Fold this protein.
Amino acid sequence: MEALGLLEKKIKNLVELIEKLKQENALLKTENTRLAEEKVQLSQTVKDAVVEHNKDLDKLSQEKALTKMVVDDLIKNIDSLVEENQP
C-alpha cells in the first residue's frame, strides 16, 4: 500500500508539473507572438529610417554639388575682377 501511495504522489506531482509547463508554454507562445510583431514593427521602422537617411544623403549630395558650382562661379568672377583691375 505504501508503494501505491508513493506512486500516486509521484503521478500527482507529474500532473502538476505538466500543467505548470503547459501554462508556461502558453505564456511563452504569447510572448513569442508579441516579440514577432515587435520585430516586424522594428524592421519597418529601420527600413523607414534607412529610406529617410538615403533621401537626406541625396539631398546633401545635391546641395554639395550646387554649392561647389556656386563657389566655382564665385571664384571665376573674383578672378575676372582681379584680372580687370590689374594694371
User: Anything to note?
Assistant: The two ends are 126 Å apart (CA to CA).
